[in-house]
Amino acid sequence: MVLFRDETTPYRTIPELDVKEYRTNAKSLRGNVYRVRGEVDSQLAWSPKVRFISIIVGDDDPLPVQVPKKFEGINIQKGQKFIFVVEIDEEGIPTAKEMKKV
């Protein structure tokens, strides 16, 4: 018996973020970790410790993602596609724990 696996999807063992559920009640997802794939829409804000970007996930409206300083070496530009592992923080904002360009 041969089993096929999708080896090309990073973080495939992490559940995908349900954007509709997130928009309905983000704070109910606090502390949970999800995978999300999206295209960078814009950079919303920047500080020495963190930057905030918005990404487009599928056909949905932009989703905010907080990107900590540990990722400062990654060039993030509009139109680039990433897969993120995010944790929903206490304020209900997805915070990148891992990220890869796709």
Topology:
Layout: H1 19-24, E1 33-46, E2 50-56, E3 63-68, E4 81-88, E5 94-101
Antiparallel strand pairs: 1-2, 1-4, 2-3, 4-5
Q: Radius of gyration in whole Å, from Cα?
A: 14 Å
Distance between the termini: 31 Å
- Runs in which pLDDT lies below 50 for 5 or more consecutive residues are none
CATH architecture level-2 label: Beta Barrel
Q: How many helices? A: 1
Q: Count the strands?
A: 5
Determine the structural class based on helices, strands and strand pairing.
Answer: mainly beta
* Secondary-structure element pattern, one letter each: HEEEEE
How would you sum up this structure, described in words?
This protein has 102 residues and is mainly beta. The protein has a single domain (19-101), classed as Beta Barrel (OB fold (Dihydrolipoamide Acetyltransferase, E2P)), CATH 2.40.50.140. Helix content is 6%, strand content 42%. It contains 1 helix and 5 strands, in the order αβββββ. A 5-stranded antiparallel β-sheet has the order 3-2-1-4-5, with no helix packed on it. The longest helix has 6 residues, at 19-24. The radius of gyration is 14 Å and the shape is globular. The protein starts with 18 loop residues before the first helix and ends with a strand.
